[in-house]
Backbone:
């Protein structure tokens, strides 16, 4: 699990980028140069944090006390609720570095945090132990659902054969090293005719191993072996192959080892790799004699019937591959440029990431959400369901499959202890002193690895049978009807869905008014606006954070009551049509572990006729502070009462929810007219938006205007929401834009003011989301402005470098020229060249604790404390800063003691020949 503690410290180190008004990539002219005094407190960064590098190479560095497992969720640096950026992991697996491109002042480095998948990392890169919980009954799994009429988890009639192919590697854009074309094939024996193809893609995991050591290198260094993540789905492949599918699971270690620098986290690269394999299968279907032996022995693959299955970042990869197969990406970004000779009928996404939050609305999907996911722990994959609403025709079924007690890794046997060739682990970390009552191993709700993988196989097969084979009898397993597949027992699996034969939605994201409750926002820093406040015990997949601190258009209806009978009315901007529907299907969240929430559901038409449809009961999922269990249950009420009451179901103006339990809370995600069946899906021809990035030099004079590169291709017109991020504050402003192919509707100008003063790189970012009638591929881009002026030289002048104990050592740090940005010159402690050295008991203990997290005892030389430093903060436009080191008076007679700090290099080590802060402290006379 990836989780960390909140570190409530303020950094007094200032390392800034050029700033200004949004869209202006240069600060206003600095004030006149002059002296500035600052008491440097050793950097003021919390333990584990430091600043490395100088000038434009400055980085914020965090080092974990233990290796952080290479996972699929991005590791992010935050200052409070502000995203600072995505750091790069070093080879040691402990050190993470972030280029400081946006930080302008010390105040921006308050409350530093490391997060991944919506959770915080502690000092060891693991889950922070929750506070001791009061004794309470352990949550129990819900009762088994009724069995479905057919069970897709039963093996089919065919024996299976397994083999591998290993082709020449391919070169993908922006990756320096080629990526392997390796795969394992499992196919039915004796099957006649062409057979549908299921392609699997694993997620982001360590790439190489030797004994108990793993790395993220690519290619694997000599003496190490590639981790065979692609072999982790053999159980799923064998089940599908027994049912007549040709299956192939492809290797993507070459992407995993190089995707750290990709703006989209590697989604485009994974899509390119998938389509490279599909193109080979299309070639082999047309020319069987050219195929590898394992493919020649298999039945011919029918490329008109393709299912894509992706785990974690592999899930985002198959989503992008489905999109790219319908609307090609820009050629410069794509690693496959041939014709599309396949048809993707559906996707299965297992614990997926969705960094861009742009799902493919016209390709059916089933998203498996592991209830004890310790990697992508915010369960952001829910957006593959919620994010499709209103985007296109709405006929494709999008299902969320919540597996209680499943972790992230155990869906892949090569990520499972006791089964994997390389070292592996349970990604859900629980403190042995405070075991999680839902997800700790041995609890009533936690699944074993075998039971979890079995359940995954069953629901992959269910999706194949519905999306590819068209067997509507398995739909109740995926669409929220509330049926189970007995072959997945004893796993408890719950589903809800949008799309298919749902129509006439009450959608909080659109024009809507609410009485008796409130419209809340999925992502908002204002606790009075956000759907889940700080008191929530756990998280919600529906409200997973994106890259902005506030989002427009992601909403729910929040209900809170202390007595039964207070109705909540939801009125959309225009009447809703429910004619032809059998039921009203609602997706409603209630708090985890709650039971017996009861709501009466009513509708009112435009003539004022009202009917109570029935009463629903909703129970919460098992959950704790460490799970994302605020997840909507699907409940349905028949519309027969409305028909009897003469309600005009073609023109329903409002929905009513009346609590009948004593007190409680609930959140309405949406409500739809529902009827059974799975309609044929016809993909709409939509415009596609891709945002690029332009990198420019600042220049020495004048003002130049650059525009964020945006390509709109495809057909028709649609709407997207454009977020422009202020490079100084990190806050985003958004607007709704109608886009057309070839147009310049998304116009974001960036002014760059040139001069000869030093500044940092300025990154002007733009983010785009689809709203209606459009798709978005590359969702993130902008204009990056590079500094082209030299870093001022640094010199040191003693102010008080020989003092009596109890006084402060002082130095003046000077720049050869003023800069356009705040500069923090970092001086790291080094051993003195001769005589006694100042110790931990000779300096102010508060300064020592703030600077390093260390205590004075046991007494030791200051140079023994790693990363202890002094920082000279020189504001923009100033030339000097004063640095002080506070000492304390003691009662011990001792010799004169010295201390030495030297300017740091890019790695935070002493810069050879660099300026030195040297001082001596004398005993009290």
Residues:
């Amino acid at each position: 699990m990836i989780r960390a503690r909140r570190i409530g410290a303020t950094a007094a180190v200032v390392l800034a980028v050029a700033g200004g008004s949004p869209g202006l990539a240069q600060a206003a002219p600095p004030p006149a140069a002059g002296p500035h005094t600052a008491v440097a407190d050793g950097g003021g960064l919390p333990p584990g944090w430091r600043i490395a590098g100088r000038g434009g190479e400055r980085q914020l560095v965090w080092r974990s006390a233990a290796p952080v497992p290479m996972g699929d969720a991005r590791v992010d640096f935050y200052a409070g609720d502000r995203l600072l950026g995505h750091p790069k992991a070093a080879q040691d697996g402990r050190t993470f570095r972030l280029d400081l491109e946006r930080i302008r002042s010390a105040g921006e480095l308050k409350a530093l945090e490391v997060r991944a998948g919506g959770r915080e990392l502690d000092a060891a890169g693991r889950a922070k132990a929750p506070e001791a919980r009061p004794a309470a009954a352990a949550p129990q799994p819900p009762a088994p659902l009724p069995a479905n009429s057919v069970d897709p988890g039963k093996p089919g009639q065919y024996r299976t054969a397994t083999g591998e192919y290993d082709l020449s590697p391919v070169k993908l854009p922006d990756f320096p090293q080629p990526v392997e074309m390796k795969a394992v094939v499992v196919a039915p024996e004796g099957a006649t005719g062409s057979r549908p193809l299921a392609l699997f893609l694993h997620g982001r995991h360590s790439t190489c191993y030797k004994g108990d050591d793993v790395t993220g290198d690519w290619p694997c260094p000599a003496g190490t072996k590639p981790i065979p993540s692609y072999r982790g789905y053999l159980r799923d492949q064998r089940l599908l192959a027994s049912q007549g599918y040709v299956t192939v699971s492809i290797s993507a270690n070459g992407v995993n080892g190089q995707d750290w620098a990709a703006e989209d986290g590697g989604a485009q690269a994974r899509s390119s790799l998938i389509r490279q394999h599909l193109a080979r299968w299309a070639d082999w279907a047309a020319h069987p004699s050219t195929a590898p032996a394992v493919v020649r022995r298999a039945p011919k693959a029918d490329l008109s019937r393709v299912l894509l299955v992706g785990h974690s970042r592999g899930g985002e990869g198959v989503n992008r591959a489905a999109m790219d197969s319908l609307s090609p990406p820009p050629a410069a970004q794509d690693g496959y440029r041939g014709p599309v000779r396949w048809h993707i009928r559906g996707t299965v996404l297992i614990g997926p990431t969705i960094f861009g939050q742009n799902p493919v609305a016209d390709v059916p999907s089933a998203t498996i959400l592991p209830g004890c996911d310790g990697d992508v722990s915010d369960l952001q994959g829910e957006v593959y369901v919620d994010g499709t609403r209103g985007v296109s025709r709405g006929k494709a079924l999008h299902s969320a499959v919540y597996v209680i007690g499943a972790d992230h890794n155990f869906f892949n046997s090569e990520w499972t202890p006791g089964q994997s060739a390389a070292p592996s682990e349970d990604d859900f970390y629980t403190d042995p002193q405070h075991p999680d009552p839902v997800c700790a191993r041995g609890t009533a709700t936690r699944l074993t690895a075998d039971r979890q993988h079995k359940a995954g196989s069953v629901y992959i097969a269910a999706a194949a049978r519905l999306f590819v084979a068209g067997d509507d009898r398995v739909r109740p397993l995926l669409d929220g009807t509330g049926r189970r597949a007995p072959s997945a027992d004893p796993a408890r699996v719950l589903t809800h869905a949008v799309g298919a034969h749902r129509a006439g939605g009450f959608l909080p994201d659109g024009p809507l008014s609410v009485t008796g409750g409130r419209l809340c926002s999925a992502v908002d820093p204002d606790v009075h606006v956000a759907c889940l406040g700080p008191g929530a015990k756990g998280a919600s997949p529906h409200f997973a954070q994106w890259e902005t601190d506030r989002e427009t258009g992601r909403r729910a209806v929040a209900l809170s009551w202390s007595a039964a009978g207070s109705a909540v009315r939801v009125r959309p901007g225009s009447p809703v049509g429910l004619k032809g529907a059998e039921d009203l299907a609602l997706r409603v969240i209630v708090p985890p572990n709650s039971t017996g929430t009861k709501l009466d559901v009513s509708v009112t038409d435009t003539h004022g006729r009202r009917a109570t449809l029935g009463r629903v009961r909703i129970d919460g999922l098992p959950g704790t502070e460490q799970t994302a269990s605020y997840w909507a249950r699907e409940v349905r009420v028949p519309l027969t009462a409305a028909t009897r009451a003469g309600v005009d179901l073609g023109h329903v103006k409002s929905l009513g929810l009346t609590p009948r339990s004593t007190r409680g809370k609930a959140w309405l995600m949406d409500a739809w007219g529902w009827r059974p069946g799975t309609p044929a899906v016809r993909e709409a021809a939509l415009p596609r938006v891709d945002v690029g990035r332009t990198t420019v030099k600042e220049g020495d004079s004048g003002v130049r205007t650059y525009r964020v590169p945006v390509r709109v291709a495809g057909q028709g017109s649609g709407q997207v929401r454009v977020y422009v991020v202020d490079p100084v504050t990190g806050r985003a402003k958004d607007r709704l834009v109608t886009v057309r192919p070839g147009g310049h509707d998304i116009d974001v100008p960036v002014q760059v003011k040139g001069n000869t003063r030093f500044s940092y790189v300025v990154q002007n970012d733009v983010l785009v989301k689809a709203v209606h009638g459009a798709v978005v591929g590359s969702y993130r881009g902008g204009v990056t402005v590079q500094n082209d002026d030299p870093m001022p030289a640094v010199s040191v002048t003693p102010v008080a470098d020989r003092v009596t104990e109890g006084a402060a050592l002082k130095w003046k740090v000077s720049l050869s020229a003023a800069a356009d940005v705040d500069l923090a010159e970092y001086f790291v402690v080094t051993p003195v060249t001769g005589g006694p050295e100042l110790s931990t008991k000779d300096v102010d203990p508060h300064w020592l604790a703030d600077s390093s997290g260390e205590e004075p005892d046991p007494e030791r030389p200051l140079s023994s404390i790693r990363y202890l430093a002094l920082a000279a903060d020189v504001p923009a436009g100033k030339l000097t800063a004063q640095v002080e080191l506070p000492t304390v008076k003691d009662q011990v007679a001792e010799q004169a003691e010295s201390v030495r700090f030297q300017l740091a290099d890019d790695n935070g080590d002493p810069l050879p020949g660099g300026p030195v802060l040297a001082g001596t402290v004398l005993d009290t006379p």
Notes: Residues 267-286 form the longest helix (20 residues). The mean pLDDT is 90.
